[in-house]
Automatic annotation (TrEMBL):
Protein name per UniProt: Alpha-L-fucosidase 3-like isoform X2
Family per record: Belongs to the 'GDSL' lipolytic enzyme family.
Keyword field contains Transmembrane: yes
InterPro entries: GDSL, SGNH_hydro_sf, SGNH_plant_lipase-like
Record has Cell membrane as a keyword: no
Record keywords, A-Z: Glycoprotein, Hydrolase, Membrane, Signal, Transmembrane, Transmembrane helix
Pfam families: Lipase_GDSL (PF00657)
PANTHER family: ALPHA-L-FUCOSIDASE 3, ZINC FINGER FYVE DOMAIN CONTAINING PROTEIN
Amino acid sequence: MGPLRYLSLSLLIFFCKIKIIIIWGLILAVVVEEEGKATAAAAAAGAECEFPAVFNFGDSNSDTGGLSAAFGQAPPPNGETFFGAPVGRYCDGRLVVDFIASGLGLPFLSAYLDSIGSNFSHGANFATAGSSIRRSNTTLFQSGGFSPFSLDVQSWQFSQFVTRSQVVSKRGGFYKDLFPNEEYFSRALYTFDIGQNDLTMGYFHNKTTKDVKAYIPDVLDKFADVIKSVYYLGGRYFWIHNTGPFGCLPYVLVRVPRIAARKDRVGCGATFNEVAQLFNAKLKETVAKLREELPLAALTYVDVYSVKYELISRANKVRASAYGVLRARREVQLRRPHGLRVEDHGEQHRGFGREVVRRSVGEDMLGWDSLH
Ligand SMILES: *[C@@H]1O[C@H](CO)[C@@H](O)[C@H](O)[C@H]1NC(C)=O
Ligand SMILES: *[C@@H]1O[C@H](CO)[C@@H](O)[C@H](O)[C@H]1NC(C)=O
Ligand SMILES: *[C@@H]1O[C@H](CO)[C@@H](O)[C@H](O)[C@H]1NC(C)=O
C-alpha cells in the first residue's frame, strides 16, 4: 500500500463513529487522493512513508487539546470512548489527525498550548477549536465568538517552536527527548484543516451569501501566506484538507434558519454547501498556484468535502448522540429564550440524511454533537 494511499485510508475514520459506512468510506478513498505532486511528496519522503513528525494547523476538526489548555477542558462526555475521559478533543474518541499520526507510526500530537504532560518529539498541534484563517473580530467571551488563535497566530507559534525547541533541546537529556530533531522540520508532514469557521462566521454576523462569497479570496490569500511562511521555515510536505459540507451541520441550520430553508436533495442547507464548494474550488486553485511558487514543496489537496457528503447522503439515518441533541437544543435556546423541544428540533432537521434522532451514547452515529 502506497504511503499516500495509507494516509487516505486514515481519512476514512472521518467522523467519530464510522462503523455503519466503512464500506462507503473505502469506495470513497479514491476521492481523497490527488494525483501528481502527492506522489512526488510520498516519493521524496521515502517509499515507506517515513515522515518523522507531523505539524498540524486547524480548528476543532483537528484540535487535540489546544483550546482546552487555554480556556478550560472540553467537558464530558467528550473523550468517553477511546480515551475514557475528556482529552481536549471535541469528539468521543480520536480525530482524523490522530489516525494520521498513528498511521505513520507516531504518537498522538500534543497541543502546543498545553504545558502539562506534552511531548513534542514527533510533532506539535497548533489547531484550536473555533479557529479561523482570518482573525475574528469577536472573542470567545461573546456569544458566537471564535478562537483568538487564528491561522496567522498558529504560524507565529510554529515559528517560535522551530527556534526555541532547538535551544532547549540542546540542554540535552530529558529535554532532547521532548523536542524534534532539527532535521525533522524539513521531513515532516504539515497538515491543515481550517476554513469552515471563516465561512460560518460571516453568516453568524448576519452577512449575506454575496458578502461571504466576496471575502473568500481574502481568506485564501491569508491561507497562502501561512503556507509560504511554513515553507520558508523549512516545511516541504503539505497535506491540505478542503472544507466540509457545513450546510449539513445542525448548529448552522439552527442558527441561520432563513438561509437554511433551501434544502438540497439530502436535506442539508443548499446555500451553505454551495459556498463550501466555492471555497474549495478556490482553495484548489490556490494550492495549484502555490505549487508553482514553491518549487521544492509537495502539496496535496484532500477532498474531505466529497467524503463527508457521501457519508451523509448514503447513511440511512443521521444520528446525533444525546449530547448532540442537547447541544443543538442549547443553541436554539440561545436564540429563543423559550426554546424548542428536542422533538421539534428533530422535526426541523428531517431530511438531514433521513432524520435526526435521539440516541444513547455508544450506538452508531454520524454526528457527535451539533457541530462535529
Ligand atoms: C474585522 O474588522 C476589520 C475592521 O472593520 C475588517 O477589516 C475585517 O475584515 C474584520 N474581520 C472579519 C473576519 O470580519
Ligand atoms: C517523548 O516521546 C518519545 C517518543 O514517544 C519518547 O521516546 C521520549 O522518551 C518521550 N520523552 C519524555 C521526556 O517522556
Ligand atoms: C444579527 O441579527 C440578529 C437579528 O436581527 C441580531 O439579534 C444579532 O445581534 C445580529 N448579530 C450581529 C453579530 O450583528
